[in-house]
Structures are given as structure tokens and as C-alpha cells.
Amino acid sequence: MQGLDFTVLVEYLPFLAWGAWWTALISVLAGFLSFGMGVVFAVALLYAPAVIRAPVAGFMWLFMGTPLLLQLFLIYFGLVQIGIDIPAIWSGVIGLGLHYAVYNADILRAGIASIDKGQTEGSRSLGFGRLQTLRYVVVPQAVRLTLPPIGSNMIALLKESSLVSVIGIAELVNAAQLGISSTFRPFEFYIAVAAIYYLLNLLLEGVLALIEKRVEATK
Amino acid sequence: MDIALIQRIFPYFLEAAGVTVVISFLAFVLGMVLAAALTAMRLSRSRALRFAGTAYVSVFRGTPCLVQLFLLYFGGPQIGINLSPFTAGWIGLGMNIAAYMAESMRGAILAVDNGQREAARTIGFGRARTMWLVILPQAARLMIRPLGVNTVALIKGSSLVSAISVIDLAYTAQRYISSTYKPFEVFTVAALLYMLIVIVVTMLVRLADRRFAID
């Protein structure tokens, strides 16, 4: 049993920072994807004809009931089999994004359904089309309403982005694993990684609070 | 869809599903016990205990479960903790989910109307008896649903133990995807088994919720 020595980390700090940068980048991209697709899924569930609604509902059911890790395997190893070769990093972003899109859609659907019918009627009678009504009247109000739960999904997404290390994407956990393979000090490295995630989390919480405050002000 | 392949690999997946169920169950029990202790700490009168409970919840919810598992399994030996992948798996998952369960428990206790506590105290109940006889029986019912949500998340999250080489459903799926080159068939089998476990647990939760519901 060797003693703990956190000074080994100093040499690897730029390396870990680089990993943290990729974690942040992947999370931001997946975050936007999860929000955009979440809106699309929610609208499809509420307004699309059954031919579109049924597969979307089936897809959501499947993605909610199975682990993200399995979905990442499927996207990364599976799409290659049917001739779609996407780089690992995009597999990770798409997997994370779609997984959380399903959870966001579930929240947004409830949000959209709770918007008063008068809003749609008013907008339609002013001459807005159906899509315009959704885009400019209904969805913005639903998003404002559902911001806190969507924010906690984003926080979960940031943490779960660690799973993409399993399909070999060079982010924070992967950077630590490389450091460990040359120093044999997993304890020190994983403590450092946990601390960095904790800080990223605090940062994200701050950003979310800022967004909520701004949105609150426009009410 | 290669049905013959599915039939051939199914027995191995059934066995792996057993591992997923057992590891999730052990983690669930550990999680509930730890969460109850954490909740007691966070509601106690001692500032030190309150701080320790809050810090635990904040740290375990603020960092990824995967990193916690790696720290325990790979980092543990450096501080004299040598665990098998299976043991590290259920202890790690249990310690992680305890933080989320503690939030559910605290939320339920705080959701009980304050008048209940005031009334119990007024008629002469002490703090402990008020908690045991008045608050907890009412809070227990409010806890069932959120704890059920935690448990479903725990079952899906148990797939992470595959990364510390526990041969569970996710590990088996990954192995067969790379050995058979039939990702969609393998995914279907693994997904069905995860869904089955989740559906059974959801039904149990619903049953418990109905049994203890306040009408």
C-alpha cells in the first residue's frame, strides 16, 4: 500500500483542464440537442398525426426504459453496422442529446398542454398559422414554465456525459484514465475529477439561475 | 432480425439480468438505510450532523456516479479498501442513490403540514414521539412515489457497474455486440430485459402507493 500523494496531479493539471474543456463542450452540444429535439418530440406527441406520433411515443418509451450506456453502445457500435459511420464524439453527443431529449419532451409536453387555449385561439385569430402559433406563442410560454425541471435535466446530462468515456471519447474521465495509466494513482486522479465535475456543476447551476432570472424578468 | 441468434444468446442474458437484479436490490437496501440515516442527520438539532448530512448529499449528487464507482474500485486499494467488482458495484451504487433517496425522504417529511407537528407538540408529545407517531407515518406515504423514481433510476444506473467489469446486462450486451456484430439484436434483448425489470418495479411501486394512499 503506497501513501497518497496529490502532488502528482500538478504535472497533469493542464491535461485534466483539457479533458474538462471537452466535457463542457460535449455537454453544451448535447444540451442544445436535447432541448431542440425535446421541443420537436413534445410538439409531435401533441399535434402530429398518428403515423408520426406513434413512432415518437415508441422511441420515447424505449429510451426512457433503458440505460444511457446501452443506448451509447447501440449508436456507437450499431450505426456502423448499417453503414452509418459517425465519429465517436458525435455518437456521444447524439446519444446523450437524444437520451435527455426524451426526458425534456416529457416535461415540455406537460408544459405545452398547460398553456391556456385562449393563447392559441387569440394567436390564430390574429392570423398566425398553426406552426407560427406554436413557435411564437405557445412554446415560448411552455419553456418559461418548465425551465426549472429542464435545468435539472441539464445538470444530470453534465454528470452523465462521463459515460461517453466508455466509448473512448477523450473527455475528463478519459483524461484521468490516461494519467492513471502512467502514474498508477487512481485515487488522487478520481478525487480531482470529482472535484472538477463538482465545480462544473456549480458553474452550470449559476448559469441556469441567471437564465431563470432573465426569463422571470420578461414575464 | 436474426431470431436464431437471439434464441442462442438469450440464456446468457437471463443470467446477466439476474446479476443486474441482485446488484440493484443490494444497492437499494444500502441506499434506503443510508438515506434514512442522512435524513435523520439533516433534521437533527446538531449543527455538525446537519452539515455532514448536507455535505454528503451535495457531493454525491454533484459528481458522476461513474467517477464514484471508479474511485471506490480503482482508488480504494490505495487507502486499504480492496473490494471485488461486484461488492464495489453495489456499495458504490448504494452510496450514490442514498443521496437522491435522502432528498426524497426529506422532501416528504417537509411536505407534511406544519400544523400536525404543532398540534402534536401542543398536546404534550416530545420531539422524537412527534416524529415517530405523527410526522413519519404521514411522510412515509408521500415518499413512495419519489423513492420509486429513484429506484427505477438506480436499476438503469446499475449498468455503470459494467465499467468496473461486473458481468451484468450492460456488460453482456457490450460483449455480444462486439463478438456477433449484430448490435440491434443484442440491444433488443438487453432492452427488453431492462424494461421488464423496470416495469415490474414500477408496478410494485404503484401497488404500494395504492395500498398506503391517503384517500
UniProtKB/TrEMBL annotation, chain A:
Keywords: Amino-acid transport, Cell membrane, Membrane, Transmembrane, Transmembrane helix, Transport
Domain of life: Bacteria
Transmembrane annotation, as ranges: 20-47, 59-80, 86-103, 163-184, 190-211
GO CC annotation terms, alphabetical: ATP-binding cassette (ABC) transporter complex
Matching InterPro entries: AA_ABC_transptr_permease_3TM (IPR010065), ArtM/GltK/GlnP/TcyL/YhdX-like (IPR043429), MetI-like (IPR000515), MetI-like_sf (IPR035906)
Matching SUPFAM superfamilies: MetI-like
Gene Ontology biological-process annotations: amino acid transport
Pfam families, A to Z: BPD_transp_1
Protein's name according to its UniProt entry: Amino acid ABC transporter membrane protein 2 (PAAT family)
GO terms assigned for molecular function: transmembrane transporter activity
PANTHER family assigned: L-CYSTINE TRANSPORT SYSTEM PERMEASE PROTEIN TCYL, MEMBRANE COMPONENT OF AMINO ACID ABC TRANSPORTER
Organism lineage: Bacteria, Pseudomonadati, Pseudomonadota, Alphaproteobacteria, Hyphomicrobiales
